[in-house]
Request: fold
Amino acid sequence: MRIGFLDAHREAIPTLASWHHDEWGHLYSEWTLEVGRAELEEHATRRTLPTTLVLHEGAALLGSVSLVLEDAPEFADEGSPWLASLFVRPDARGRGLGAMLVRAAVALASDIGIPELFLFTPGQRGFYERLGWAHVVRTTLKGTPVDLMRIAPTAEARPASSGAAAATTSTGLA
Reply:
């Protein structure tokens, strides 16, 4: 397993755009597949905000997570930046890969000096609470109930170094 920045895996952009749009397109009225792809293209130009991390096992793309300045305009007043678009391929779920991606994103946020990180989730509040996220409020987005959550990234949030990720930065990101 290895987690790396999207800039080193640009070939994953069409697949990620499709996965993300299929999963969350209904929550964003103007967010087309093309817009999603363009956002990922932009993320692949940097290793700071906004950026996307990708998870591979061998050559197989298994998932991704992003750090963005705004995830939904409706929640802009809640704060910034946001953990967004956590996705693990359905056949790879149940192996702790989502938690691995979240921990890597929180560690990256800590490394770049982000004092507070937000997210919203339509149905995974318990998952994020187990990873140290605090519940802020239950609300709706385009008629879908969602939970807003926050975390203060710290050095303690960093994943332990292991052979699962190529250690080329303090976060273990390749």
Summary: The helical segments are 13-24, 33-43, 97-111, 125-130. The mean pLDDT is 89.
